[in-house]
Amino acid sequence: MHEITTEAELRELLGEPTPPALAKERDRLHELDRAWLAASPFCLVATSGTDGSCDVSPKGDPPGFTLVLDDRTIALPERAGNRRADGYRNVLANPHVGLVYVLPGRGDTLRINGRAQLTRDPDLLDRMVVRGHRPLLALVVEVEQVFSHCAKAFLRSELWDPATWNPDAVPSRARIAHRLERRGERLEDVERYYGEQYAAGLYPAS
């Protein structure tokens, strides 16, 4: 392998960032960032443990699920999940997080980096009720860095072009789970679990 081991080597290959690429970085939310958060139903939350192990967790809810508390603070609710809490355990040890917010159909994305903490503040959680479901906790992020990513990755991948979609290229989620995680269960039971009742249980009453 022709491994790259120094920043000098990296810069020799990639070059220096352009002035606009450097100038776009901000340390607080602009009104356009607030508008993006109000419209976004999905983000990815990246964390790292003290040992360097990483986690990227998808978070999704109706548009506007991320609350803007002020121009330097946002909060995300935690909904029902698999309870592994990999990212949250990382936050307890290392508060640095990176978030990428997506708008369906848009190639550009919003990046927010900052320091996070977990809270169960009742007043905050009461503001995050969706379909009768109140989250058990929230991730509060102190914004340190904000900027937009251009659309090149989405354009190259043709992610939003339905003509490129092929959801049957790999087995269904139920079949993957049956093969890797639920080998002792009947396939029909796993398929039933990931069927209509799966979507119906997204917002259980708390």
Describe this structure in words.
The chain is an alpha+beta fold. It folds into 2 domains: 15-156, Pnp Oxidase, Chain A (Roll), CATH 2.30.110.10; 166-200, no CATH class. Helices cover 30% and strands 26% of the residues. The chain contains 9 helices and 7 strands; from the N terminus they run H-H-H-E-E-E-E-H-E-E-H-E-H-H-H-H. A 7-stranded antiparallel β-sheet has the order 2-1-5-6-7-4-3, covered by helices on one side. Strand 3 and strand 4 (73-77) form a beta hairpin. The protein starts with 6 loop residues before the first helix and ends in a 6-residue tail after the last helix.
Which SSEs are present, and which pair or pack?
Blueprint lengths: L6 H8 L4 H5 L7 H9 L2 E7 L5 E7 L6 E4 L2 E5 L8 H8 L2 E7 L6 E11 L2 H5 L11 E12 L2 H6 L15 H8 L6 H7 L2 H5 L6
Antiparallel strand pairs: 1-2, 1-5, 3-4, 4-7, 5-6, 6-7
Helix pairs in contact: 7-8
Core attributes:
9 helices, single chain, seven-stranded antiparallel beta sheet, Pnp Oxidase, Chain A, alpha+beta, 206 residues, 2 domains, 30% helix, globular
Structural class computed from helices and strand pairing: alpha+beta
The average pLDDT value, as a whole number, equals 95
Q: Tell me what the CATH architecture of the largest domain is.
A: Roll
Whole-number tally of structural domains: 2
Side by side, the strands of the main sheet go 2-1-5-6-7-4-3
**Low-confidence spans: pLDDT under 50, at least 5 residues?**
none
Q: Using the alpha-carbon principal axes, give the shape.
A: globular
**Spatial gap, N to C terminus:** 53 Å
- Please tally the β strands and state the result: 7
- Please tell me how large the radius of gyration is: 20 Å
CATH class of the largest domain: Mainly Beta
Order of helices and strands: HHHEEEEHEEHEHHHH
Question: Looking at this structure, what is the CATH superfamily of the largest domain?
Answer: Electron Transport, Fmn-binding Protein, Chain A
Q: What is the helix fraction of residues, given as a range?
A: 25-40%
Number of helical regions = 9
Beta-strand portion reads 25-35%
User: CATH fold name of the largest domain, please?
Assistant: Pnp Oxidase, Chain A
